[in-house]
Amino acid sequence: MAKLRVAALISGRGSNLQALLDACRRPGFPAEIVLVISNRAEAEGLKRAERAGVPGLVVDHRSFADREAFDAALDRALRAADVQLVCLAGFMRLLTPGFVSAWPGRLVNIHPSLLPSFKGLGSHAQALAAGVAIHGCTVHFVTSDLDAGPIIAQAAVPVQNTDDEASLAARVLEAEHRLYPLALSMLAEGRARLENGRAVLQGRGAADRMLFNPAD
Ligand code: GAR
Fold this sequence. Notes:
By secondary structure, this protein is an alpha/beta fold. The protein folds into two domains: 1-103, Rossmann fold, CATH 3.40.50.170; 110-216, 3-Layer(aba) Sandwich (Rossmann fold). The chain is built from seven helices and nine strands; from the N terminus they run E-H-E-H-E-H-E-H-E-H-E-E-H-E-E-H. The strands form two sheets. A seven-stranded mixed β-sheet has the order 3-2-1-4-5-6-7, covered by helices on one side. The protein is globular. The structure holds glycinamide ribonucleotide.
């Protein structure tokens, strides 16, 4: 079966991109990364794309008059590469409603919290300040609201009483690197899809999306 053609949108380090690139190299994995777009030329993730032999493109938001023009350039690049699914992987720009509605069920994001808690920046500091016992990460379909949209999969990470922001972020990141490839395989195999504004999970995928502890 043909592999799902995926683009990753990044702004920085690209460790989630790396996890997706590594997964796509596994024999039989149902998706391939065909394009990486960064809004920042200095993003470390662009080097990861290059090392993996995947085309990387810089679309600098500062060279466009407004968000609509920036998003239109993203859209053109994605369509030119015949992209079927867009994975936001540390992409730190809000997308316009026009862009989001042009990619229904084909635009997903990873966020370092158990949504709907702790949206936006500083999710680990927010979790520590709230004193939660369980934190984690979420892969979700994107809507035009920040860090919102139907949830595809979540991973739980226990908060330890010795945790600071850095130690908690590191453990959540490990979970992200497991969760995003898992969610991508579910999407690529049609086991996770968007239906009437809800994420519908089927078969094996329904159990896969349950919580896990990355220390297991
Ligand atoms: C990741 O923790 C990702 O979940 C987060 O940015 C980091 C990017 O790291 N995304 C968001 O906060 C989106 N709201 P990476 O560049 O190493 O993948």
